[in-house]
Amino acid sequence: MAADEPNPVNAGTTLAPLPDHRNVAERWWQELWRRHTHITTSLRARGLPCDIEFGLSAYIVRVSLPDDSYLTISPPQEPPSKRRPGDPEGWIVTREDPYVVTQYEVLYDSVPCDDPGANQRPEARHGGSAVPLIAAIDHRLGQLGLLPAPATTHASAHPTPVQPTPPAQDTPGTPERGAAYIYGDAMRALTDRLNGAESHADAAALLHQILELTDGLLAQLGEFFEAAGEKAKEAEEDDGFELSYDLADAAAEIRQLGEVLHVAEDRMRALTPLTPAPRATPARAPSLLPASPTASTSRRTR
After folding, report:
1. pLDDT per residue as tens digits for the range 238-276
2. Could you give the CA distance from residue 106 to residue 66 in angstroms, rounded to a whole number?
3. How far is 137 from 143, CA to CA, in rounded Å?
4. 96 has which bridge partners?
């Protein structure tokens, strides 16, 4: 967990610190934290400290706010969700104040309602997706002036978007490959640009495209696998649910990788290239060939 210590991700974005309690060193807590990084990373990038606690019947994310109130981001508790931690059928977000008992607000509720006669909240269609949940929190905390550090980006760290080279139409097999792997080709083009980068600053700008916490490739790849898991659940088959769990795990691992590498961009930019030493002109080496003979080579006659 040491690699997850708060450090600048780029100019203007800093991760809030990790919780400071003994459970942080426990493997079970670290696994719970890993399963919730798709929520905690985005909020910590906004300067909001997060923790994992046990609620009424399941683990929740508790988010501390600057005015001493807090958010609770919870799966269904009554009845409890039967899904894995971090991947519920929906989320409930509330704001409370320990010193003002009358302050209780539901910011977001995407838990599907089983009662056919009840009115569904608009966000129920989002289910367990984290993207609209974070957007709703951003919106409400922005209204209240409680976002200490809205996620920002380093303007100079956005190189020109990479466009994959179109395949040659006269090459056998390339049209099909080009249509099928345009995203892989775009990533290959980005790698080629990294190989050809002329400075560490240029390389850092390309790393930014991968590691930016909300819009970078890893963040979007996590969203992709999360969406794929939701699509698998639509089959309503046992294997669909098992596949959704595997995809949700993959999404969590990708987001955790983003947290571990979140300072790689700054570290790359801070590198100082070695200045090559001036090449001295070598002294002229003596010839290793034997000198041409000077003695007469005429044949002696009798």
Report:
1. 788 788 888 888 888 888 788 778 788 888 888 877 555
2. 18
3. 10
4. 70, 104
CA distance 187 to 203: 14
**How many CA atoms, within 13 angstroms, populate the side-chain half-sphere of residue 74?**
20
pLDDT one-digit tens code per residue, 68-105: 999 999 998 888 888 888 888 899 999 999 888 788 99
Most confident of 116-125, 133-142, 145-154: 133-142
Q: For the chain, what is the radius of gyration of the CA atoms?
A: 29
* Per-residue pLDDT, 36: 92
CA distance 256 to 218: 10
Interhelix angle 130-144/217-233, rounded to 10 degrees, is: 120
DSSP state of 80: B
Within 8 A by CB and 6+ apart from 295, the residues are: none
Cα distance between residue 197 and residue 85, in whole Å: 42
**Phi, then psi, of 290 in degrees rounded to 5:** -65, 150
Residue in the block written with tokens 């070598």:
282
Residue 116 gets which letter from DSSP?
Answer: T
Burial of 205 (0-12, 13-18, 19+ CB in 10 A): buried
Contact 63, 46 (CB under 8 A): no
Amino acid letter for position 29: W
Q: Which residue in 147, 141, 155, 65 sits closest to 108, CA to CA?
A: 141
H or E element at residue 60? strand 59-64
Contact (CB, 8 A) for 127 and 83: no
Q: Is 32 helix (H, G, I), strand (E, B) or coil?
A: helix
